Amino acid sequence: MTSTTGRQGGGGGGVNGVKVRVPKMAELVAAQLRRKIVRGELAEGEALPAESALMAEFAVSRPTLREAFRVLESESLISVRRGARGGARVQTPEGTVAARYAGVVLEYRGTTLKDVYDARTVIEAPCAGLLAEGRTDEDLERLRAAVAEAEALMDNPSAFIRAHMEFHALVVELAGNETLSVLNGMVRHIIDQANWSHVDLDAGSPENVRANRRGFRAHGALVELVAARHTEAAEELWRLHLQEAEDYLLQNRSMTTVLDLLG
């Protein structure tokens, strides 16, 4: 009888018949540097130590170290300047990297725009309730300033939709849940593109003006519910607002999938 836990070809051991891939040395080096970045041991804009110092620290060759750099550069955790005065500098992790990759995955899977809008509702509506429950006076000031800014831009469709989108992002940010904020950033990347496509298609049309005014009223109403700490009412209002926005945005039948929008 042959053991399923013995050595297997390809450089990986096996447990219960499942082959385990051994990480490459470059991946291990990248993991060590990544850990230092996310823990703040290497600050934004700080130059990494010289290649010779890192090669000695990790006991690796220059090609292996540079492969590790490419891994981190692909994750936007460092920027690398080539040449005699080149080197690697630390960049703060941003959700835009995850957002771009999520868009590619959703395109590949043929995900519908309705699917994305539904996900936004699942994320944003509870955030409105969380915001109403835990808001501060400073939160209210920021929300009211955002509403005032949008009102001043009502006659400028492009500027208004930008302010409109920023208000939605602000609601999630002020809710205070970092995980939901990152997830929202991934969805928002796609929703924002859909909003811009509608600005191009029907900016200034009677239907567009009505939709903008309905949305503006919903934003103002949400601020008042948040001020009064009406948690359930805030969540329900925001869910209704998001559904109305979805119905309006999905009227463009030429784009039904993420691939139609981003491809």
Automatic annotation (TrEMBL):
Pfam families: FCD, GntR. Keywords: DNA-binding, Transcription, Transcription regulation. SMART domains: FCD, HTH_GNTR. InterPro entries: GntR_C, TF_FadR/GntR_C, Tscrpt_reg_HTH_GntR, WH-like_DNA-bd_sf, WH_DNA-bd_sf. Residues 23-93 form the HTH gntR-type domain. PANTHER family: TRANSCRIPTIONAL REGULATOR, GNTR FAMILY, UXU OPERON TRANSCRIPTIONAL REGULATOR. This is FCD domain-containing protein.
